[in-house]
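Question: does this match?
>
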Amino acid sequence: MIYLDNSSTTLIKPKEVLRYITLAATRFTANPGRSGHNESIQAAMEVEKVRAKLKDMFNLESESNVIFTSSCSIALNIAILGSAKQGGHVVCTENDHNSVLRPLEHLKQIGKIDYTVAYQSSIGCLKCEDIEKCLRPETYMVVCNHMSNVNGDTAEINKIGKMCKEKGLLFLVDGAQSGGHEKIDMQSDNIDFLTLAPHKGFYGLQGLGVLCIRAPEAIEPIFFGGTGTNSLELIQPDVLPERFEVGTLPTPAILALSGGIDFVNENFNAIREHLDDLTTFLHYELSSLPVEIYTTTENAKGVFAFNIPNMHSTDVATYLNDRWGICVRGGYHCAAKKHEALGLVDRGAVRASLSYFTSFSDVQKLIAAIRTLLKKQKMIK
């Protein structure tokens, strides 16, 4: 089996992550911060260490500004629904995931906001001017996908963040694909809210999302419940992170993220170089074949989208899985507007997404499988 679906979730976990998973299952199993006994306190202290690592990695002012959620989608919902302004306007982008588009569409359907989708004026990158031309007097937020989960297209978040600061706009960055792969500084990039999916670029476990907040006063909680503090009060606590964290935290996934941060910090440049090499190699080889490629060489970051002419993407993915044991993803990747922009509403795209643990041999086998399929379809000899 060759696994090339790492943009969905990483399959192979580094030893640093496995070590913390074992600790979570054998040592820190109490409910963190919910009791005054030593086991609960020790578990809570381990959780706080992970907040501190994220604070340092993304240049936040305080560990308390790191909010743990059950997924990146939930983190995006908290930021979008919690900041909604009656009669306001939001700008999002063609690269955004349905975790952004559907909350915005919900707010539009109930008559609370309107939103505009910004489309790329240049190949491979969403520019600041693409956002600016969509602004209205009532615009209060810009939501921007840092790296497309479909084809790896990126956004110049530093320039967009600077523009948002100058115009007094909130800036939400979806870092689900870029977290762990790209340098992000919430201060210098002027990011108010950053969301992360630790099971992707940090090689962690599913069931955890992260919301990093610089502007907590701009959002209201959308979930309410137990926090372990102020239990006699029926109003959600005002302090962070309890204001936005409800219920028992997923300690194993949080501690796995701790190991993932260590792994990424130690191997950051090597990870980037490896993904660049593999993606560039795949692009070069498939460019000589009758294959439609939607990923640019400038975005050789491990997310590669393509199609075989006259075939639906899911049929290609099924063939690669059944005949070759190669795991890729076909379809629409929960990204409706990106497929509209690429003109792929009729068939979606095949996505091969790589990781640090993907080998050149894995990519060569994918290329060989595609060659065989093209011969079968009588597109090459």
User: Anything to note?
Assistant: The radius of gyration is 21 Å. The first helix runs from residue 15 to 26.
